[in-house]
């Protein structure tokens, strides 16, 4: 017979397992009640209140949060100190604004001979800019200063602002659409040349030019097919894939863009202005490294956009088998004249159901076709371009073969918006494969001549998952914008992405805004040589004017 | 010999079902009156659902075939509730038992919840029912079923508090099923959560650590690598602070692990200091043995404590684990402990003597003369002892262990070099910080 046994109180957790909440039961009797508890160790030194000899670099000492009040450190705040910009402000120069006809080509390339003369000046200016940026580089700077951007459209004082939507609300939207319905297929496609899949930086291929092929960037209301579908009441909302992808990927955009919205009867048309940002491709839009700010620099944002658009067009035609063998569809290209040589493109007019009584029709593009196992597959063709390895830190000629993932990751970081829009367009068109070309300058100083270093194919759905592009979020944004615009009265409006902040505004504009009444007339002979320069000057004037408008808008907000 | 029993101090930090193995051990060792043990078991069985077990104990305790009416009523209630919970959890249980259906689950929790809701009409209510069903099964003693259900529940649960509770439950189930490898995994997972979770107050975190250490004793003294891992866990700063704050009795198990472990010698010196500090709040023959050997250098006291340690180990539920081998019963930890304890005494004793009489040594080691001589010969042969035996005088001659002047000078120079290097590094680091600013 042993001693009397008393096991004491054993707690019971009726709702689960684990220790009970000590603030409720007070089961730790040996700790005094109502005294705040802080972890400590008996080997800790006492007298810390006036310990002037503490060693902050001792890794063996564990950081005790209760001692945080004694950890005073004098951290100087350097954020209030910054260099003054020594560059003189640009002098505005006013002149007539050069406007092109409706179906214009991209801006004319300047004369190469004139360009060569200025190359030395640009070299010197680029060196000066690089030194300037190097001196100003700050590791704590998360993004380049947004003030260098300007709005893509001039905000007029008579415009009324109806709404302002921050991109943070876009990120939460979600909407699921059923599979689209194909209404019509127009155009003709050429076959993809599979030998381009085997290009490597060692056996690069020179990028050719296609001056005789016509590329069309027709906006929604100028499309005769869409007009016909609107008259037949096939839908209430009309758009193109370029416009939709701009909306779908809006949270990723940094540069300013604008979309014209026209409410006609019970119909809604999303349009783009002629010559707007949507016709060009951005380069290094989401990069941390700032681009040169001078308009004349071959590496400025605008110059790179023009160059990228040209590269994209030329690439999309070069990788085709151009033997006259074409796949034709229901109708011919609705924008081409008889006998005109047209770039390989097929327009899929598709309809999505947004609501019981609301449909959306969009014109979606595919660029090529390929037969895989006797099954026809549609392709989209796009090209990334490298201009100077110093800006991205990744030299494609060295890394593209050995570290393709690193090259793609860098491009995903620096061109997140462009790649997202390409993916969204491929998803809208239900393309089977996205072909991405890697095109680089022959020399970083020469922005007229390029080579194709590689071509890679991706499944649009897999690529979307890889870049965190969510289909339901894409359509959620479109649906919310459509619902917002449907509540507006009949008239013309414009959606403008703010150049500095991640938000979009919607303005009501006069019915005749953005319409081109210009009648071309001959200019004095000395001015005809450099019309783009005048355009650049006008842009700078726009910058000055737009700053005033922005201040007024901020005042109103 | 119940004087050193720690069960009353352990029980408040254990789940009720984990106390039963301790009571079983105490009953086997006959440390207490049987009636008191049985009464304690019945008290523990209140609130659990093991009614049949309670009835059996009641019959043994009171030597009767009759059982109280409240137990009969309790049994009916338990059976009814079992049916009710079974029905509530049936949809999800049926899904989990369907091999083809389970294949549709993915690593994406949101996808799983959406899929279950759309295609099988399994929503939050059914998932909650699974938790309640698992809790009920655990209280019935069906630890295997509870473990399976809790595993599935944690894969679908979106409430972090409930998920943590389910993890404690699965750990308890694996311990009671003696699945030591799986239990060790759950223990490590739980430890990571406790160390990284934001608790309502530091007191809750300390209490969670104390509970974790108590539950871990079941694993560490049954797992192959447990003696090392108990030191790795208990000897961390945060966990040692918890021991010093609210659970100094756990020092017994840490001390025992240090004594029987050969791979954690470097931390042993620091632990001796802890033993010294904590003598006022907890002491038992094992901690006192270490104090005699390394603090007081009391070899006679150490010898006496060694005999008491044997009793403590035999009567401890975790240390006194018994292994049956072909009609022979042994306690492996006791043998290992005594062997290492003798070694500790011998090492310290030899360090302060040059010539040691074999008879005196045999007396201090609790061995007879021949055993002591054989033991020392084995030590010399295995190069653990730098000594010789003089058979004529029956003495052990220790080789001198002094460093000569040159070696001492080299040691000091190395230390000085290290400190100088560290000082220069800090200065350069500070200078660079100034430059950056």
Automatic annotation (TrEMBL), chain A:
Residues 108-128, 548-557 have a biased composition (Basic and acidic residues). Its main location: cytoplasm. One of its GO terms (cellular component) is eukaryotic translation initiation factor 3 complex. Keywords: Cytoplasm, Initiation factor, Protein biosynthesis, RNA-binding. Residues 277-291 are annotated as: RNA gate. Residues 95-106 have a biased composition (Low complexity). Pfam families: eIF-3_zeta. Residues 79-128, 517-557 are annotated as: Disordered. One of its GO terms (molecular function) is mRNA cap binding. Residues 517-528 have a biased composition (Acidic residues). GO terms for biological process: cap-dependent translational initiation; formation of cytoplasmic translation initiation complex; translational initiation. It comes from the Eukaryota. mRNA cap-binding component of the eukaryotic translation initiation factor 3 (eIF-3) complex, which is involved in protein synthesis of a specialized repertoire of mRNAs and, together with other initiation factors, stimulates binding of mRNA and methionyl-tRNAi to the 40S ribosome. The eIF-3 complex specifically targets and initiates translation of a subset of mRNAs involved in cell proliferation. In the eIF-3 complex, eif3d specifically recognizes and binds the 7-methylguanosine cap of a subset of mRNAs. Component of the eukaryotic translation initiation factor 3 (eIF-3) complex. The RNA gate region regulates mRNA cap recognition to prevent promiscuous mRNA-binding before assembly of eif3d into the full eukaryotic translation initiation factor 3 (eIF-3) complex. Belongs to the eIF-3 subunit D family. This is Eukaryotic translation initiation factor 3 subunit D.
From TrEMBL, chain B:
PROSITE patterns: PCI (PS50250). InterPro entries: eIF3e, eIF3e_N, PCI_dom, WH_DNA-bd_sf. GO terms for biological process: formation of cytoplasmic translation initiation complex; translational initiation. Pfam families: eIF3_N, PCI. Its main location: cytoplasm. It comes from the Eukaryota. It is found in: Cytoplasm. Keywords: Cytoplasm, Initiation factor, Protein biosynthesis. GO terms for cellular component: eukaryotic 43S preinitiation complex; eukaryotic 48S preinitiation complex; eukaryotic translation initiation factor 3 complex; eukaryotic translation initiation factor 3 complex, eIF3e; nucleus. Component of the eukaryotic translation initiation factor 3 (eIF-3) complex. Component of the eukaryotic translation initiation factor 3 (eIF-3) complex, which is involved in protein synthesis of a specialized repertoire of mRNAs and, together with other initiation factors, stimulates binding of mRNA and methionyl-tRNAi to the 40S ribosome. The eIF-3 complex specifically targets and initiates translation of a subset of mRNAs involved in cell proliferation. Belongs to the eIF-3 subunit E family. This is Eukaryotic translation initiation factor 3 subunit E. It comes from Glycine max (Soybean).
